Amino acid sequence: MEAKLQSELEQQQIEENEVKRRIHLVIFRHDQKAKNIPEGHDALVPLTPGGVAHAYESASELGIQNPAKIISSTRKRVMQTALLKWANVAKIPKADVIEQTVEELADLVTQSLKDRKGANRKIMTTDDRLNFDYESNLSFGNSFYKEYEQLKQNRTLDWQIEHSDQIVLDLAQKEPDEGLMKVSSYTRFAGDMAQMINRYVRAFGKLKILKKKENFDFDILMGTHSQNLECFLMRLIEIKEGKPALQSFLSKLNNRKGFVDFSEGLKVNIVEDKKDTQQVKKIEISFRDKKWDVTMQDLEIMIRDRDQFNEKVRHILDDNSKKEQ
Questions:
Q1: Which of 227 and 320 is assigned the larger pLDDT?
Q2: Is the separation of the CB atoms in 75 and 45 below 8 Å?
Q3: Which of these, 129, 85, 100, lies nearest to 224 by C-alpha position?
Q4: pLDDT at site 63
Q5: What is the per-residue DSSP string for 45-98?
Q6: Which residues pair with 267 in a beta bridge?
Q7: I need a surface site. Which of 24, 60, 155, 316 has the fewest CB within 10 A?
Q8: 294, β-bridge pairs
Q9: Closest Cα partner for 88 from 112, 72, 117, 118?
Q10: Taking the model in full, what pTM does it have?
């Protein structure tokens, strides 16, 4: 009995001493935004005072421990949310951040890194793949907001899945406009998010080569919007569990306008799979109590679908342009 216990303890010690490598992506929605739109620009809408407090206080719920970088939508409320979460993890007092501008928050977070390697680096970048666009084509935007702003029987999620892509294609045929190459639809949302994740799956392999036998474990914070997260998650359920599972998921929602709450998000663990002799990455995506083991192929399906959809829209627009000449 004692020999067995000793053996178990020795094995545990070996496991604790093993090199552990992980990239943790935390992809979350912004917190509560103000209702007034400054100068008519949605990108400038800040968080409410309550949203500021909740964005700061809820950082621990996302499991953020060692943030290395922020990638954000270009909208102010998203940048605020991400910086407030980092400030919490950096133990910057709440009183010091609740009334700060985005620029001041970024300075405070950067200063908190002064004793860390790479403290002078830029901590936040923006990426349009975390954004949304219902403005580049007025007809498409009107179709979305007609559904989104309904007070009763709101089925925005169904609109995304069943209609958004087709509306882009129909408008490209009937009302050709270059803005249709930019607007956000179901397939584009899912493909863009998959591409953001896949970037770090690929980076993992490069880090393993560079670090060799060194540990690395850090968080990448990605700030985005509810529609981006919801379309990706719904497409993920479709791929991993099938369309009936997606319909079952939707049927259990309290409302079908959306399901990702303020400051809520998904977690992506990219970890070393020690059982794989070719050192293929293991990708775990979790949201609330659901968890999926995801492959690079799953992500590449979404990226491929987006690219093929864009090619189709481009082809229709080009054909219509030739007819007008």
A1: 227
A2: yes
A3: 129
A4: 92
A5: --B-HHHHHHHHHTGGGGT--SEEEEEE-SSHHHHHHHHHHHHHHTT--GGGTT
A6: 26, 286
A7: 60
A8: 283
A9: 112
A10: 0.90
Bridge partners of 125? 71
The domain 23-324: what is its CATH number?
Answer: 3.40.50.1240
Burial 303-316 (b: 16+ CB within 10 A, else e): bebbeebeeebeeb
What are the pLDDT digits (tens) for 25-47?
999 999 999 988 777 788 999 99
Rounded to whole angstroms, the Cα distance separating 32 from 21 reads 34
9: CB partners within 8 A, 6+ apart: none
Per residue in 53-107, pLDDT (tens digit) is 999 999 999 999 999 999 999 999 999 999 999 999 999 999 999 999 999 999 9
pLDDT > 60? residue 219: yes
User: What residue segments make up the domains of the chain, in order of their start?
Assistant: 23-324
Query: Would you place residue 10 in the very low, low, confident or very high pLDDT band (cuts 50, 70, 90)?
Result: very low
Whose CA is closest to 75, among 190, 225, 230, 228? 225
Longest dimension (CA), the chain: 87
**Alpha-carbon distance values, 238 to 9, 14, 162, 194, 235 (Å):** 43, 40, 13, 14, 5
Give 249's contacts (C-beta < 8 A, 6+ positions apart).
234, 237
Start-to-end CA distance of the chain, whole Å, equals 87
Provide the CB-side half-sphere exposure for 268 (13 A, CA).
28
Token pair for residue 124? Answer: 């936040």
What lies within 8 Å, CB to CB, of 167 at 6+ separation is 140, 143, 185
Nearest CA among 62, 130, 57, 86 for reference residue 287? 62
Helix (H) or strand (E) holding 244, with range, is helix 243-251
Asked whether the predicted pLDDT for residue 220 surpasses 90, the reply is yes
How far is the C-alpha of 59 from the C-alpha of 88, rounded, in Å? 7
Q: What is the pLDDT of residues 99-147, one digit of tens each?
A: 999 999 999 999 988 756 555 568 999 999 999 999 999 999 999 999 9
Instruction: Label residue 194 left, alpha or beta by phi (over 0 means left) and psi (-120 to 50 means alpha).
Output: alpha
Tokens 């500021």 sit on residue: 52
